[in-house]
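ERR on first pass: missing label on line 2. Operator R.T. fixed the label and resubmitted. Corrected input:
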Amino acid sequence: MSKTVKDAIETIPTDEINSISLSLVRSEILTKVIEYCKKHNSAQMSDVDLMDWDVEFANVHYTTLFDLVLSANYMNINCLLDLVCGKIADMIKGKTPGEIAKLFDIKDVSTYEEDN
Amino acid sequence: MVSDKTISIKRRKLTKKKKKKKKRTLTSSSSSPSLPTLPFDLIPEILCRLPVKFLLQFRCICKSWKSLISDYKFAKKHLTLSTTHTLHCISYRDNAHVLLNSYSLDYVLTNITQTQFPSPPDSYLFVGSCNGILCLVREGTDVVHLQLWNPSIRKFKELPPISTPQTFVSLYGFGYDPIIDNYKVVVVYSDLNRKMELKVHTLGTDSWKTVSEFPFAFVSAQRPGQYVSGTINWLVSTGIKWFITSFDLGNECYQEVLLPDDPCKVDENKLSLSIFRACLCMISGENVWVMKEYGNEESWTKLFTISYLRVPRASSYSYIMAECVLENEQVLLTYNEDERFGHISYNYKNDTSKFIELENFPEICVESLISPCF
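pass 2 clean. output:
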């Protein structure tokens, strides 16, 4: 499911590899990513149940969501990236420009009003 | 002088670890959690999932977001994920202005916005829509004026007028040419020699180009063409049979596409061509067909049938027909009662109907950030 891991496995000869270093992924986040991949690979759940499970999975705090986005992007897991980006998009819909600037750590905040 | 550095380097070489065969594991670093800053290249992944109205608000956050949201490549990415379909209808109730009533396509068809049409008050018709841009026409005596408008982002473009020797322009069409990644408007009319000409306007240019003679002599047709897969499609009749004339915007060539039913036996009054989920949709009598694979006549598939008699008060109407299929298992019906037209949204799964107040025939399109202005 992770293209990054798949590429690593495919390019490095098997007897030389002992660990794949994912230095940008925190251990708690990696646990969640593995949980997601296992669930999506298990084929035990129906599509509807899996969708419900995804909703629950993504129902976390911004910090975890952002970490998941970074990890999914780094590990190249497209379906997880879609899920988490969709969740973040939903959550920012009601936010003011000031709140969004803070959330995304935007430094060069505009002072002009949006033009129509 | 032998420095400590030299000795330490040697030491490092001597202590190089031996590789052991271990079970493959994934390891990660640990650090204290705080809200990470997302790199800018991940921002489009999030923003492209937002409806247009939020993106327009977020343009004011900072220069890089404004630049991103105004970027054509981002608009295209957003379009691929855009699922918000809107039903637009022209209204002449206000004497001073032409208005566009836009309804969100949900179960209830709620009225969401009313926008002023940025063109002189006159009678307008929908030519079609594509990728969030509406195409409208104002027919004058010897001249025809076409406009492109994306009401979601309020970008409007008046096209160069096209002079037509007769007052009656036969066919119109608007669509996207994937070969040049641009939009084209097509007009078919008969010239002074009674030859049927097809003219094309490519967005960004300032003129109309004569392409070729329209190859089919027809006696009646559904005037606005339907855009699908880089082609414009018109339902035409030679007087003997009905079929679809397809014009490929990229190659600028014609093709005849056959209908699913017997083309000589269709009921003209209950025949319409539309688009449903990016496929040609043919409504013939009670049958609703969809061409699952464009151009492949074997792929015409009957989706469902409409029982007109189940529509409330159907017997009191002099005329009732289905125009197009809406999402959520609904069909848009047009009826005529006492010489006045009305519209009904009919749910074919549970047989429920709802009257819809529409002044004129509507146009349904997806919302997008794509601008008709260059």
